[in-house]
Design brief:
By secondary structure, the protein is of the alpha+beta class. Strands 1, 2, 3, 4, 5 and 6 form a six-stranded mixed beta sheet that branches. Helix 4 crosses helix 5. The longest helix is centred in the first third of the chain and has 53 residues.
């Protein structure tokens, strides 16, 4: 200690100022190395974590914003989904009965219906039936419109109309298609027997 005091006493004013300045610089450097540096590094890491969490929260909020829209869309398509996928024979029977019901309501006379077995696509099943019917032109058009607007996802895939001699009626040949969309993932149908029996003709 005496040696240090003698060393300081032997310095002139400028040397003393330089010594004080040097000591201050060393203390600041040590303070930065031991405290400020690690603290700033930790704060930087915390800021990065906060930024990542903010991005996650923004994404979650975006998904939550879609919640009401998804619920509304689900509600709208629910009537078109089939809760339980029946076998081919049962589905085809219901399909033909629906056609007959719509034909009767439209005052159209069915003369023949030939259904085909269902075909499984990626997300749905497709059924078709070729039919022939007669009736007033406006009634036939009404029948086709009833098919296309039914909630069971049916449509007239193709058709042809010919006039009947000595009558204001027309004869229509058409292919009607029905789509069955399961409400959940379904295994392939086990009943693949073709329905070969035609529906009873309506006189």
């Amino acid at each position: 200690m005496n040696t240090i005091n003698k060393f300081i006493a032997g310095l002139n004013d400028n040397q003393k100022k330089l010594l004080v300045f040097t000591v201050v610089i060393v203390i600041v450097a040590l303070f930065d190395r031991l405290l400020i540096g690690p603290t700033m590094s930790r704060l930087s890491s915390i800021d990065e974590d906060i930024a990542k969490q903010e991005d996650v929260i923004k994404q979650d909020l975006r998904f939550l914003g879609y919640k009401d829209r998804i619920k509304q869309e689900t509600k709208e398509i629910a009537p078109y989904l089939t809760a339980v996928k029946l076998g081919d024979n049962e589905t085809i029977a219901a399909f033909l009965n629906k056609i007959q019901t719509l034909a009767g309501a439209s005052k159209v006379n069915l003369s023949k219906i030939n259904p085909s077995a269902g075909q499984q696509e990626a997300q749905y099943w497709k059924y078709q039936a070729d039919l022939e019917c007669t009736g007033n032109l406006s009634d036939v058009i009404t029948f086709m419109h009833a098919i296309n607007s039914d909630k069971e996802l049916m449509k007239v895939d193709k058709f042809s109309l010919t006039g009947k001699k000595d009558s204001g009626d027309v004869k229509a040949s058409m292919t009607v298609e029905r789509i069955v969309v399961p409400g959940a993932s379904m295994p392939p149908g086990s009943d693949k027997t073709n329905a070969t029996a035609a529906a009873p003709a309506t006189p």
